[in-house]
Amino acid sequence: MQLWRYSAAFSLVLLFCGAANAQFGQRTQWSEDGNAIIKAVDGEIVQEMVADPQQRVVVASKTALTPAGSPAPLTVRRFSLSEDGSKVLIHTNTRRVWRYDTRGDYWVYDRIDKSLRQLGTTLPEASLLYAKLSPDGSKAAYVSGHNLYLEELASGQVTPLTTDGADRIIHGTFDWAYEEEFGCRDGFRWSPDGQKIAYWTIDARTIRNFLMINNTDSAYSYTIPVEYPKVGEAPSGAFISVVDIATGVAVKMDIPGDPVQHYLPRMEWAANSDELIIQQLNRKQQESNLYLTRATDGKCTRIYRETDEAWIDSKARWNDDDPTGWEWINGGREFIWVSEKDGWRHLYRIDRQGREKRITPGDYDVIGIDLIDEARDYVYFSASPENATQKYLYRVKLSGGPAERITPEGQNGTHEYTLSPNGKIALHRFSSHTSSAGGRVVSLPDHRTLVEGRHSELPADVPKAEFFQVITEDGVEMDGWMVKPADFDSSKKYPVVFYVYGEPAGQTVVDGYGVGGNRLYQGNMAADGYLYISVENRGTPAPKGRAWRKAIYKNIGILNIRDQAMAAREILKWPFVDSSRVAVWGWSGGGSSTLNLLFQYPDIYQTGIAVAAVGNQLMYDNIYQERYMGLPQEDSTPFIQGSPVTHARNLRGNLLYIHGTADDNVHYQNAELLINELIKYNRQFSLMSYPNRSHGISEGEGTGAHLSTLYTNFLKQHCPPGGR
């Protein structure tokens, strides 16, 4: 359940910039020697020396990227280069698929003969997904209409590699649930020798459509079907096949088990062109199996198994929502693996027989892998052993041992790095609650600044967030931040507004630029006299160990809600907090938390604003909800006890409920189920339905201003600002 899954460092900033509709852009494209980056600038593609940005070489000019008969060059959304650098694959004219604009047109510019030609011209406009050049640059493969195609660049001949793709048989890409919950989008891989393609097939024929309704765009309403597996429903079947591009013959991998009762979130070629390596999760996501499979006959051999009493995260959870790639070392004889099996998220090296060695011992979490620099025997990774709201760069020997901090002391906050493949240079971005810096280039491992970047300080007239810890009566220590009123007077009492998320998909308490901001509020909360606070409950993905993160198993809507309420109860003891003016708000999973807090603890919270909330956990998708709550067929009690609809009768305060009717993630159905419960018990509330808006409620002229005005007016009316 992405439910507004933000980058931790910028969660509050992105929240109101349409994060639910965010587009992923161009990934950093490094030159072969790792000393330059290749990027699109003003309609051209250029190579820019990292240590001297003034040194540029044009890879493809505006003229070169202008199709015959067109008055303007292609708008480059994304691009990639062939392995020898002679061809540039360009993604343009893109269209949104669920969250991201992954569908569009592809063109190939040949730097040798200076030609520019479009791929898939016989297929519908803007219908191609995930086009990739073959290793030798002579062919391209792509998906269109749920089928996988091969195209010879020299002749333009297009060959379908699958032909039965349809609404429910999906080749080379994924269904809604796989994309949303595993980050799986690109569903095929070229073999290293370019002779085969491995690809996923999703069989969603048993998955029912959820019908959204459009009442405004025509005289007669019409339905919009979304293939969507509700919790408790069997998943789509998942299969992996390998097709020989010379013969067109495909071999299905013989993966053990019922394909409808497992997930296949990761697959790559196993450092050769003869084998695949595949991760299989059982339906409960409590057992992970790794298989080596032979491409020629599909025979599978399990080499590694791991279990967890709660759940096992896939790579997308610690790799910026991207599950692709496999971290091979030692000439393909071993790979790096991430596991929480010892209570912390650590790195292990595993060989092809499944023998393992932990290489990052200690009581801390690896947040993510930044680079494997095998030439120097190091792996670079991010972590923050001392402060779960921050993030720093470390490295450790591939043979294991104590971690070495690379980020210099003194810059407390969140550090992001994009490391060059040569391990000598990194693009560095720094963010804290008081400042931010981007565009900096540093050398590694000494972290010497090669190029200064942009630096921004929080304006002097903007109150800064203060970080704190609060210990609840249950003995739980929680991180938090607060922004005090601009003219704070400790002798006065101020209204408090809590911002909450509270589920496993995201943190709110992070030391990043913009933390403490609220873009739904018109004006300045601090200047108007609000105390704005967020606290981080157990179950959020903070780097505080497995026990912290997985305490929420079968407890969403229960444990996280109690943690939030007990923290609020401690905060209300502070002498400057007005316990008669307490508000809480959140979006998506935070909307669900808002409802539960308002309903379960009406003695604490008088006002709530909930946006796009899951009102009934049995109405959300199976991958997310079953991962964290188990199977409802086995035990539905946690689902019921954790759902806001169960507690709606307890509403005593002021509720504003907001939802888009075209929300394909958290269906508007949740709103109507909640409304019925509130009506049943004569609980009065305010409702705003946004017609044909999705989960981000961003579509339509004037929507942003309307939502912000609505939010602000309701808050001021029911939780008046100012000290008393």
How much strand? 35-45%
- By CATH, the superfamily of the domain at 466-718 comes out as Alpha/Beta hydrolase fold, catalytic domain
Mean pLDDT: 94
**CATH architecture type of the domain at 466-718:** 3-Layer(aba) Sandwich
Biggest pleated-sheet summary: 8 strands, antiparallel
What is the 3D shape?
A: globular
Compute the gyration radius: what is it?
A: 26 Å
Class from secondary-structure proportions: mainly beta
Query: At the first level of CATH, what is the class of the domain at 466-718?
Result: Alpha Beta
Total number of beta strands: 44
Q: Which stretches are low in confidence, meaning pLDDT under 50 for 5 or more residues running?
A: 2-23
Oligomer: single chain
Topology:
Elements lengths: L10 H5 L13 E2 L5 E6 L2 E6 L6 E5 L17 E4 L5 E11 L2 E11 L5 E3 L9 E6 L5 E6 L2 E6 L5 E3 L8 E3 L4 H7 L5 E3 L5 E8 L5 E6 L7 E6 L9 E8 L5 E3 L9 E8 L5 E8 L4 E8 L5 E8 L20 E2 L4 E6 L6 E6 L4 E3 L7 E8 L4 E6 L8 E6 L6 E2 L8 E6 L5 E7 L3 E9 L5 E3 L2 E4 L8 E6 L5 E7 L10 E6 L25 H4 L2 E5 L10 H5 L8 H13 L5 E11 L1 H12 L6 E5 L10 H8 L7 H5 L2 H4 L6 E7 L8 H12 L5 E5 L12 H16 L6
Helix pairs in contact: 5-6
Can you describe this structure?
With about 725 residues, the chain is mainly beta. Helix content is about 15%, strand content about 35%. It has a domain of about 250 residues: Alpha/Beta hydrolase fold, catalytic domain (Rossmann fold, 3-Layer(aba) Sandwich), CATH 3.40.50. It has 11 helices and 44 strands. The strands form 9 sheets. Strands 5, 6, 7, 8, 9, 10, 11 and 12 form an 8-stranded antiparallel β-sheet that branches. Strand 37 and strand 38 form a beta hairpin. The longest helix is centred in the last third of the chain and has 16 residues. It is globular.
